[in-house]
Amino acid sequence: MTANARETVLRRVQDALARSDRPEVAVPRAYRTGRALPDGERLALFTDRLVDYKAQVRTCTAGTTATVIAEALRAHGARRIGVPPGLDPAWLAGWEGEVRTDSPDIPAPRLDVLDGVVTASAVSCAETGTIFLDGAAADQGRRALTLVPDLHVCVVDLSSVRTGVPEAVACLRPEHPTTLISGPSATSDIELERVEGVHGPRTLEVVIRTDV
């Protein structure tokens, strides 16, 4: 939908609402909040959910981040990777392959030459195994960068993992574009056979930094 078409539709919706004589409906927001788990339990729950979604999980400390990222990239035979412009270059100090910094000027189809992508993350939910990417954050990049390459290595700080969905959503900036990741991309064909990599990366490697 083009910008003009979207504006037309929204304007018609607003006009229709303005002519309505029905009172506004109050939406209850009494979500259960404030849940918390100790680090060890939160890590175990988050890992269990990620593995259940067929993601691959590695843990590391802040000091071994570069080593573990390099191991993940080598394990999948990556030679050329893309990174968002604000990714910490120290994270790639242990990897000897080619690194290309992404830019909005690069057409999405050209990202297909990349073997993988490495990004940070904004927040995660242990209960659902969901990782949230902030598209406005310089170390997480635009949506296309994490959808086109076949491998996504995503770095998650354990301190950013929240127990439940309300706690995780409360950490987001609603005005920023947000991508939610729950395992590698997957769908089912007409015979309900699972097919991976159709709408995004076939492989998701989650590197959890336990002391950050």
Features of this protein?
single chain; alpha/beta; 212 residues; 5 helices; 6-stranded parallel β-sheet; 4-stranded mixed β-sheet; 25% helix; LUD_dom; 24% strand; globular
- The sequence of SSEs as H and E is HHEHEEEEEHEEHEEEE
Overall 3D geometry?
globular
Question: Cα-atom Rg, whole angstroms?
Answer: 20 Å
Task: Give the mean pLDDT.
Answer: 92
User: Numbering strands along the chain, what is their spatial order in the largest sheet?
Assistant: 1-12-7-4-2-3
Organism: Streptomyces mooreae
Domain LUD: 119-208
InterPro entries: FTHF_cligase-like_sf (IPR024185), LUD_dom (IPR003741), NagB/RpiA_transferase-like (IPR037171)
Pfam families: LUD_dom
